[in-house]
Amino acid sequence: MVNDDRADMIAGILIGVAGVAIAIYAAAQFPMGTLRRLGPGMFPVGLGVTLALLGLGLAVKSWRNLTLTAVEDRFRLKFEIKTGLLTIAGVVAFALLLRPLGLVPAIFAVVGISAFADDRNTPIAIAKLAVVSAVLATLIFKVGLSMNFSLVAWNWS
Amino acid sequence: MFFDNVILGLEVAMTWNNLMWCFVGVFMGTLLGVIPGIGVLAAISMLFPLTFQLEPTAALIMLAGIWYGTTYGGSTASILLNVPGTPSSAITALDGYPMAQAGRAGVALFMTTVASFFGGSVGIILLMGFSGTISQMALQFSSTEYFALMLLGLIAASGMSSGAMIKGLIMVCLGVLFGLVGADIYTGTRRFTFGLVDLADGIALVALALGLFGVSEVIASVGKISSKGIDPESVRFRAMKPTRDDVRRSWFPMIRGSAVGSFFGTLPGTGPSIAAFMSYALERRVAKDPERFGKGAIEGIMGPESANNAADQTAFIPTLALGIPGSATMALMLGALMIHGIAPGPQLMTDQPELFWGLVMSFWIGNLMLLVLNIPLIGLWVRLLTIPYQWLFPVILMFVCIGTYSVNNSSFDVLLVAAFGALGYGLRHLSFPAAPMILGFVLGPLMEEHFRRAMLLGRGDPMTFLERPISATVLMITAAILLWGLYGSMRKSGAS
Fold first, then answer.
1. B276 exposed, middle or buried (CB, 10 Å; 0-12, 13-18, 19+)?
2. Residue A45 sits in which domain range?
3. Axis crossing angle, helix A123-137 with helix B389-408, rounded to the nearest 10
4. Chain B residue with minimal CA distance to A62?
5. DSSP assignment, residue B341?
6. Inside any domain, residue A138
7. How many helices (H) and strands (E) does chain B have?
8. Which structural domain, as residue segments, surrounds residue B416?
9. Nearest CB to B493: which of A15, A26, A64?
10. Domain contains A15
11. pLDDT in tens, B190-218
12. d(Cα B15, Cα B415) in Å, to the nearest integer?
């Protein structure tokens, strides 16, 4: 974990803005009710205001730090963009393919896509891994727990 | 009365069905705990969907088994790989790994199992002794007190978690916000659903938990964990026999560790990780030769391992007796209860004694199973650790996907997992702690309900929270923690 004051400041500002937006949206959309009978709007508005204050607090705090630390002393944020994208893409592909194509193709998608996130995995190893995973999942969820999946389907509706 | 309950609990826990699910829970928990990169929360949420087909008692027994099973398993990875399987066993690596390097892995594994059992037993005894009294007291609580207690839990959780308190508070608020999505309980107004039918029933707890703790954990671990060669000789059965000196040195750390762990387990916001850490610090302080620590001192694994297991058990005291979870994991347990249609709270013990006592007695059985099972199974866990992580993580993701889908047969929930995974990874990278978000998610809607009811009972006067002595005291403690935490985090930032 790293602390980057610039990132914290941006995060603080974003959260502050989100808080204000939530408060305004909730106040406009949901009735506030009376003090005695609080409506569905009261709690979200309070929450939005709290978030806005906390975001502001974080932004102010990190801004103060920014002025105190020299540029070269700051940590640098490094996101594993490739890993993140491939992993998320695999999960999304699973979600989108499960109904139309069935369990086995969806497993090929999630295993096949996400496995590329690690450079040590070769295409052949990934293919083997996908087959093994599909067999494993079929045995556990279909045979063992008899859950309601179709293994292969053709159902684009 | 007490013995009647114990007998009742044993009867429930000893049915074949419950014994089997207890076994499944501790076995799967240990298995997932051994694998680095899967923490308790990810383990519980991955196996969560399996429990929906079970009746509530069996479901809870299994979930609890996973919970203390992961703590047992986590120490295995800590000792053998120097990579903690779960955060609560991170401390164990400090002295456990040097022991393994010195060829004493078998001893370390055996002794941690003993320490875990010892700490777990102390925790269970306290749970049995105190839950009744506390829930008797809590029967007089009204919504006002519940709101105050829940607020205390949330504030304490954000203050105790690693990093700045303000970030913890932000995560709590975001969690509450996600918890509010869906139909309002009093009026049925759909809030923050943006016209999506899939959100009308709210965000699924499993989707949030698996996104935050499953997917984002995987993203953070890929390419970072490499399996190392482990000498199979060092974990043979014969290599597990501790020396007389080991045994002599272990007694007091176990007792002290259990006491520390039991205390921190019950507090809101603290949990096994903090308990283990405190116990390690304590052992170092009382040791005559503190320089041995970090180089394979057996006290350095015995204390923390009994502490984290004791905390695992005592954490159930507020969760079961009050219905207020002190940690994210307990929030998941509570979520499981609510999904099964059981209202958590002090009535639980009187209305459903078979559930409460069955669960408690299953803890003994589960801990015994772990003691008996773990020793012969260590070889299996070691072999599991030699599977390269680059093969393991796609399979973990597959289980996450299938698990989420099977809860509601909803592809939308799987998309939510992806979204929360991305969000969780981003926030984790910015050092926002994820656990307070789960706690906020589960407690948020309950808090709103109690707040609105308290205002109704107090005839619309917010002073009702300060006029009732218990709620006023709790709110004062909450305010003190809040001010202390915020002051500390502001001052620290100025100094650094």
1. buried
2. 5-73
3. 40
4. B493
5. T
6. yes
7. 22, 2
8. 2-495
9. A64
10. yes
11. 888 887 888 888 898 888 988 988 888 88
12. 39
